[in-house]
Structures are given as structure tokens and as C-alpha cells.
Specification:
The complex is a heterodimer of chains A (173) and B (466). With 173 residues, chain A is an alpha+beta fold. Chain A is built from four helices and eight strands; from the N terminus they run H-H-E-H-E-E-E-H-E-E-E-E. Chain A has a four-stranded antiparallel β-sheet. The chains are: A alpha+beta (173), B mainly beta (466).
Chain lengths: 173, 466
Amino acid sequence: MKKELATFLISLLFSFSAFSQLSDAENKALDDLIASQIEIEVDAIRVSALKTVFDAAFFKLKTIPHYDNNGGFHETVLMKHNGKITEVMEADSLVPFIRSDFKITNQTDAAQLKEALKLLLDSASGREDEIIQKEDQWILVCDDWFGEKRGFVVITDSNKNIQSIEYSDNLEF
Amino acid sequence: MRKIFLLLIALGCFVAAGAQKNYPILTLEEIGAAAIIPDEVIMVVVENIGEMPNLSFYDLEKKVLMQKFSAKLPENPVAHIIPCDDGLLYLVTMKKNPEDGPPLLDAIYSFDHKKDKIKLVYTEKDKVNAPWAAAGVHLKLVLDTEGNSGQPRIFNIESGAYETFSTDENVRMLCASNKHNSYVVLKINEFGDDDTVPVYVMDKNGQLSESVGIFDSRMRASTNKEENHMPGFTITNPEYNWILSAYDYSGFPLSGFSIAMHPGLAEKYNQTANLFDIREIVAANETYMAAKGNYQLWVYNTLTPNTIKPQTVSDEDMEAILSYRKDKIEYLKSPFQSAALNEVFKAKFYSITEKTNLGGDFYSESSFIAFALNGEYEVLREKSQLNDVLSSDFKLHNELSAATFQDALNALYPPGTFDTKHIQFYKKGNTWYFIRGESFSKKKGFAVNVDAKGKIQTIEEKSEID
């Protein structure tokens, strides 16, 4: 808590001291310049796999800085649930937002979950397309990295509802 | 609240002049094979929505679903849809390779859209690769099953059997043209040492024309733009200029380098708004282009680009997202405080750092330099811009003024830990050299050319200084 407070106060002091060196006109002109150099694109991700699996809306936020001329951009996937926006970071953080009526009863359901994850997470991209069932586990193989299989282990309960989704960079079958 | 939203939009959105993108006129999901009917505004697709896949027609001019068909599609997936001159569409299906290799050609079906009826035309008994690309030339289906290593299979719709492409085993197809009822070909035994080869046109009877041009197959990717080379045609007989277009709109699906090898199409591809999401171009003609990626199929009007971004996000969601972004990203702005800078340049410089909260106490930062001159604010992108903001009073005529100039550089571009020991300046002739570091034992920095009075003529960044 102390650390957080200290970080906050230091950053506040820093931004205040930086800000205070600028006149209002400079500050506004620089804000306008920054706005002109940052291109923002927001698109809803409307793919049926997402609607089938998740009880949330998803968006792709693409930020393209034009101040460095290197052609790079930054892309994040955002999720809206109950009016709150959050960034999609890890597979396990998505579990609370899985529809209560979505169950994994067969390969088709598992493939639909894999497809949905692929749209949301970089870790779900890859050329492998294997799905293996082991009792209450579904293993979604997404990539092969020098012989190591990478992907997700999905654990379901007795009702076939998803309990957890864990990423692994060395899947064991 | 609305005002805040407008302010956020104004702050957040940037429309780069001249960087107009071509946005899709149609976005579809769950699409399998697709084809655009030549000289029509109709796209035919396999839709994988619902229990059973089906064929649908889309009117690309009106941007709407035109007709959904109920004919039951073959069990094996449709790899290609080929419009043919008999008014039917031919569906080429593929099947799994039992030996775990690439998929195999399964069968050919015809589809009569007037009767909504699919009929099996041919079943492949041999082990034949599923075609990479397929086209229709009058009443023949051209199935590219062998790529560059062999000739295409020609399926004659009337006889229901394959026929020989060419009796000359050196002949390879570059593309087919339904419009000209012919094939653009080369002979592999005619490749020169320079990797170029004459191009011929083969008519429906297998007769070859005189050479109509050259195909240069050299592919070279270099950091030096001038050394880059992609394969392409030089047509020497103007009557055959149609080859360029025929080649551009052939060979689907195209991805990666294959797109770059179709220059007319590559140009259109580069203008698309979904450039980084496109995995492959699945169909195109002079007016439309269909591409796939992220489980979606996008259709673009490439003749009259759609420069208006389709709104897929509600105003309320946009407001929430921009507000979220604003909370995550902070811009730290501060003026450079340096007497040397003020002496050397007439502009005022600012450091701007974009600080992004990555979650918890983790941040990423990226910085750039801005400057103000006569009330105009600009980004300092290139070091050559420093030439335009030099103070007319500053003279680089002795060691002291050179030290001031070096201090100004140190303020704008502080040397890294390993560069500090290399920082120095010296004069040779009319040029002052300011060493800023070393890379692979080569000194790098600035060469500043001055006139007899020490007035700076040019400031040039050098990656190698003797």
C-alpha cells in the first residue's frame, strides 16, 4: 500500500512539475499535436464463436502512432461486460465471462472455444489444429515450437461447464 | 457528457492526409469457398452457418444477400467454386489424405442456380492433390494440382473427362484466360541464366503463339529498396497486354509473397483497411476483391474505394473505450532545459513521453521530440529537420561554439552508457564532425558543413564517419 502511495505521489509530482513548466497555450498546442499523431481505430469483433462462448462484447482497439514513422501499431482486445471495459490479457481471466449455457460436450464445442480464444489471445494463434480429450480435460493444441506443443488445458465439471482454462507452453498428453 | 465524448474523439482520432484506406463494403462470417462471377456484381459463397452449409449469392453492388440456396452441399468441403460458360457453377471438393499429406482432390459437382440443384459430375479415383487454384476457360475446368512442377489438369465438362494440357512436357501454365479462351504459358527448358523466360499464349487447340513477352522470375528482397525485385512480365506484343490483368486476377487463394507477385492486386491489397488481418485473397476481379482473415470475409470495391469507415461500435461503447484508454495512457510533456539548445536553435524543443499502464505497477514508455517555431508545433521525425530551425545568430567557428553545439546535441539526444566514451568533435576542412557513438567499430554521428564565417550550411546524420 505504501509502495503504491509512493509511486502515485512521485508520478503526481513528476507530472505536476513537468506540466508546470508549460504555459496553458503550450500545453494545449502539444495536446493537439499529440492527438494529431495518434490514430485510433476501434472495431467490434463480431464473430459468432464469441457470441456462442462468452457473455460479453469484444472490441479491437488499434493505436497507430505517427510520430516515429516506423509503421508500427499497438493492438489490444477489450471486453465489455455489465458496462465495464477491461483488457483481455490471459485465458483464465475469461472464464467468469463464459456463458452459463456453453458446455464442452464434443469436439465441435471445443473447436468453437478454440476459435473464440484465437480471436482474443495471441497465445491461441498458431498453425496446430489438434484437440484432445482426456477425461474432464480438453487440450487445445495451438502451436508447435521445436517439438513442444503449446496451447490450452480446459477443465470441465460434471455438467461439462468450463472450470478453468490454463495456457501451457509444454502440453502433456 | 456528449461534449467530453466529442473532445475525446477530437483528441484521439487522426486522419492522415493522403493515407486513405479502403474499407470493406461487406463483411461476412463463417464463409468457406468464395468466387466472384466475372463481369457480374455477384459473389457466390459457401456459408457454414446453421446445421448444414449452403451456397449463397451476394449482390456486391447493393451489398446484400441476394439468394440463399437450399441444395445440399457435398459432404466433403468445397475447395473451389468455378463459374463456367454453360451458366453452371462447378464445385471442386477435397478430401483428407489418408497418408497425412496435403488434402486430395475428391470430386467435381455442378450447381444449377436456377434449379437450386447440385449434381455429381466426376469422382476422382486416383490420388491427386487438391488444386491450389482453379479457373474456368469456356467449357473446361483448369485445376492447378501440380503448381510449378507440372501441368494443370484440364477437365472437359462436355466429355466429363480430363484432357491433355500440352503434349510438350516443358510447357507450364502461368495463368488462364476465359475471356481470351487461352492460356499464358512458358517453357521451363527456355529459362535463361538470368532467370528470364519467353512467354507464349496457347490457344484452345494447344497452338502456341510467337513469344509475346518475357517473364522475369527473379525474386530478391533487400534492405536496399532499389535491389528489390519481384517476378513479373514484360509484354513485348501490345496485343497481349491483357496478360497483365489476367495474371493479376488468377491463382486464388493468394497469400504472402504470392500477393506481391500479382502487382495490380498487391496495390489494391495495400490500400485495404484490414491489411494486417488479411490471411489470403480468395477472389477478385477488376472491381471487387474478397479476402479472408480472423474468421471473416471482407469484400472491397477496389475500383471505387470505400473510404468511409463502417461504424461497428456504438457511440456509447466508443465513449467508454476512449475513456478506458485515457485512463491507461498518460502523456508527459516537458520542455528541454538547455542554454546550448537556445543558443544553437531558434525553435523550442519538448520531450513527449507516452506512458502506458500495462497493469499494476508495470508501464511501457515511448518518447518523441516536438518543437515549436513561430507558434507552429511539429514532431522532430528526421534529424535533417534541425537544418530548418537553426538560429541565424549561431556561428560554428571555433572549439567553444563546437562545444556548445555538442551540448545542444547532448540535450536533444543524450548519449547512452556505452556511447559516452565516444562523444567528441573535430573539424576537417569545412566540416565539423560530432561523434555520437560507435556501431561495429564504425563511428557514427553528425557532419555539419559550415561556410567561411562558420554559418551552418547543412547538418547531416552519418552512420559511418571516417
